[in-house]
Amino acid sequence: MTSLSKMLLALAFSALANTTVAAPKGNAAAGAIAAKPCAACHGPTGDESLDAQYPKLAGQYPDYLLRSLQEYQSGRRDNAIMAGFVKDLSPQDLADLAAFYAAQDGSLKDLSHLK
Amino acid sequence: MVSGSLRNAALVTLVAAFSAFAQQSSPPSAQDAAVAASPTPASIPEAPVTTATVVAAVPEIPAPVGNAAEGKLRVYTCTGCHGIPGYRNVYPSYHVPKIFGQSPQYVVTALMEYRNGTRKHPTMQAQGESLSDQDIADIAAYLASARSP
Fold it and tell me: How close does chain B come to A30, measured CA to CA in Å?
């Protein structure tokens, strides 16, 4: 890789990393309504993914979920299915969805049992 | 937009680098495979190999089957971030996701996307680069082995 392209890469990443915008506070009750279409793949609470290719969402950290949704919307995370679903959602919608799934009981855990 | 064009330039560079890499690391050629699979002795190189036989002789490579016990050994590295309750990514700041119990095919896709650079996160891309397809299948099998209480 040339030094020019390395420089371009570094610039591109720093430009992307600097686009953090303060997100609105999520409302889980509003998120429950916004999450209706998501249930077709992720299940009603996000803990019943209908196929092993779809991630479980229930009980996941809300800021991780929000960041994922923001990245699907911006295209930084490239997924045709998710891009279609989040295309017309507002920042408030994204925060509400993240709050809803984070508040559900789920089977996701960290790996602290291995430490 | 300046950052957009920079990003495009960066993506073009990435694509070029990966295609160059893919050519270097391509598996044994189809012709080699055809010769190896051929019932005729390899000492008769004059035997004509038609396009049809080459295509038929290259088997579809199945995805490796994950071994959860191997995966448990592999995820030791992951505990450095994913094993600390409430641990946060430094910049931008957000919680490192919970991954124990995650859907297996999703984990495979995520790690492969980190490995090939489609999904961007410097630490995870570096981790992905050290993993084989079998390693990734093993990790996914272990993470999926979690059961809700």
Answer: 22
Structure tokens at B56: 């038929």
Domains of chain A and CATH, by start:
26-106 (1.10.760.10)
User: Are B98 and A110 within 8 A, CB to CB?
Assistant: yes
The packing angle between helices B122-129 and B104-116, to 10°, is 100
Best to test chain B binding among A47, A101, A109 (most B CBs inside 10 Å): A109
State mean pLDDT over A39-61.
Answer: 96
Angle, CA B32 vertex, CA B28 and CA B38 arms, to 5°: 140
pTM score: 0.69
Look up residue B41 and give its DSSP letter. Answer: -
Which chain A residues are closer than 8 Å to B146 by Cβ? 107, 109
A16 versus B95: the higher-pLDDT residue is B95
Average pLDDT, chain B: 76
CATH 1.10.760.10 placement within chain B: 64-149
- Of all residues in chain B, the percent with pLDDT exceeding 90 is 52
CATH code reported for the domain at B64-149: 1.10.760.10
